[in-house]
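A further point concerns the way the authors explain their paired sequence and structure data. For illustration, here is how one protein appears when written out as sequence plus structure tokens:
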Amino acid sequence: MARRPRCRHRGRAEHEPVRTVEGQRIPSGTHTVASEFGHRLAGDRICRRCELPRIRRAHLAQDHLSATAAARRSAHLSEYGRLPDGQERKRIPSVAAATQGPAARARRPIRLDARHQLTEGCRMMPRFVGDKIHPRGYRPVIALALPIAGIQLAQVALTTVDLAMMGLIGVVAVAAGGLAILLYNQVRTMCVGMVTGVGNLIAGAVGSGEKRTGGTEIDDRTRAQVRDLVRSGFLVATVVGLVAAMALTGFGLLLPWFGQRREIVEQARPMMIVLAPGLLPMLWLNVLRQFAIGMRRPGSLLKVTIVSIAVNAVLNAAFIYGWLGLPALGLTGIGLSTTCVQVFTLAVFYSRIRRDPHLAGLLALDCWNLDRGSARRIVRMGIPISLTYGNEAAITSVATLLMGAFGPAMLAASNVVNQLTYIAYQLNIGLSQGSSILISRSVGAGDRAEAGRIGRRALTVGAAAMTVLALAYLAGPHLVLAPFLHGGDDAEVVATAATLLWFAIAHQYCKGAQNICVGMLRGLGNTTAGLRITVIGYWLIGIPAMAGAAYLLHWRGYGVWLGLCLGFGSTAVLLLKQFRAELRIEPEPADSR
């Protein structure tokens, strides 16, 4: 009988029980090792001192496998860790189950040659060829996040074009149009939150289907689930859009009650009225968007959105000046142009999906055949998401109001820096939604360990991107501010904005991390925890910190930004702790629900 390998530190003071790769405490006297697919080898003694070198050496052994060894190992396990007959190798839930019982006796060990045995008296089964490690593991996250981030940036460009063309009309038009767009975006953001969960539910259904089929194909049961989620999403979007359109119209009629000047009300009210009908096609477009993202095919929407920017600019000019036989509507024409662009984008993207062979068969519009349970699931997920988005918009509005109390120079500098961070924030939104979809897919497939790895990769990519932007802020602050502040502007505004860039660096780390963590929790199906934690982080920590640092410590606008960082940072920490706790909770079997 072969001698069991032993740790060379056995018997010394540093020999202590350690956690396995699975994260479980091993009983005293029996240390085990684990591979990525759940195999456990009992009897290997390891300690804290040599655990990390052992794991690193295992990864090095994987990287230096010869072609012969790789072929021999791939004969046992395919890229997805399955046996040749297509059946999945199941995880062993405990040490006892790994060493006892018929499952352990039936499992045949995989022999390793001498090059795979590690020194220092420790041994670990190296990762299989199919296991995605190092940069390749980040590709799915980046590939899904970048198109979503591009779509978000294109939406920012649409708003920027509208604001720029308002300046061609006059100062009052900029003030009135800015007010109308502010209220429109607040309503639009909360409406989008109501249908955001559609993508996660579709991804979870697809993951479960892939688990049943043992490949990347989905079965008829999954196809029926996806169709029902799509038609339920359209019904929810229709109801929410109609209610939101009436609410936005009501806000326009109530503007005089908010103390706005008469000339501003006269221009803002008709713009809000023509913007209201555009909420309905906008929400239908977002259902199609979540459908495409849930199926991991969002690229075509990015192309459509980029084209819509040019269409929006042409229609803006046509409605402002009365070109192409259209009436000259001024500021109201910009609102009407935005509504027309929403209809145009919806029509083009719908036609693209109908031509996509992977998506066309799953797109269902017969809302009268929906399952009420699916609609309830969308609403249950959507309400917390919508309120979370509203919370985030609210704390930003409170910060703007506080900044205005310290003079126009401080407010102008804050608005410029906030616009910079808002542009950078779109990348984090892409990572949040992308990681959320991938996590939902992994959870649906029953691989919660992969869900944890996806979360770590999303946070890593987000931190790396924010680091690049931070270096740009530090290397050339005046160059970064040049598109917004020119040489003729007040020197005080430029100097204040350059100082606020230091706070912007911390702000984009904290806000980006908390947004990614919200998406990670949404991927696990928990949206209420995200709402609860954002309420704590924003209203109980962030806003009091802003007021205290600004007024009690007399740090003025800089204290407001410091409070924002504290609010977003504490929210990110609490969300990450909640995500890790959720990963450790095993879900109920599907048959029991």
Remarks:
- The chain has three domains: 1-65, 137-370, 400-587.
